[in-house]
């Protein structure tokens, strides 16, 4: 490679790296300002979100008494700052009381720190707090109903990923993420600008099917997952809007603006991807909640109930070693499934039974009682079934 090209490539890579990190932090601050609006809500305890909260506070309330007051001073020019204790402001109190109420009525989000326990804080802590913010349910509830009303169950199963045996959404986001990442690199490679434009357009087109599967999954999640999911979706919609604006600027010949919008869009998309990772790995949305069954179920015959104690045609909860199971008696035959639904761990023993299948009480997945086979989602995989036998009037189970 000629020295001049090597230098240009090196410069481009370094610039891209710096821009990416800058944009990512900008995205984090944007979310901090938009969704928390104040240092009380945890996000502001991080540097980036604190920056966002300070900006929001300055714009909304005037110079705020926050750690970044110097930033406000710089932005407001020579005007003398009058520091205000924002905790006394009614709107802040209102937001805070709304949050406190919601924390009392919602289960503590998985992994969320207890009140006053700052030792476990990390970048996911603001999202844990959002997960407990029931005010978002006013938005989520009608959206969930609308999505469920327009999705036929067969199509919904495909969108959930039943043919794959796991969620489809993560597979589809490869296209927009890959295209936008490539575009971000090519934007700074001489002679590749048209390719970057094309990749941005491809990414925007690929975002549509990814969004459709994401919304289908979202409509069958628990409330605390849906609250975080709303933030995830808002970030993605914002990223697509920024990319479209970037494309328009490029088509008009304003490449500088187009490239700048692309960098910001990539940062927002990266932040949204981080939130998606939080949903999948911290809140366990989309994972198989029966994956641990082989490690918990007894491999030897283990008594779980007396046959005489089991009512006919009624799901009953029992314990087989470390595994919670649901038993279902059909005459002399007893069926046993892992009790926690593979979709999101709903209690199958509280479900309803018809035509030899149990329907999960949480989101309606149906599993064959004899085999555990999946009849309909949103689960994407079968429910583990255990072998059963009756010895001396006792029902025994084991993993086959
Ligand atoms: S927990 Fe969602 S269908 Fe069972």
Automatic annotation (TrEMBL):
It comes from Actinocatenispora comari. Residues 96-118 are annotated as: Disordered. This is Rieske domain-containing protein. It comes from the Bacteria. Keywords: 2Fe-2S, Iron, Iron-sulfur, Membrane, Metal-binding, Oxidoreductase, Transmembrane, Transmembrane helix. GO terms for molecular function: 2 iron, 2 sulfur cluster binding; metal ion binding; monooxygenase activity; oxidoreductase activity, acting on paired donors, with incorporation or reduction of molecular oxygen. Gene3D superfamilies: E3 ubiquitin-protein ligase SopA (2.160.20.80), Rieske [2Fe-2S] iron-sulphur domain (2.102.10.10). Residues 301-397 form the Rieske domain.
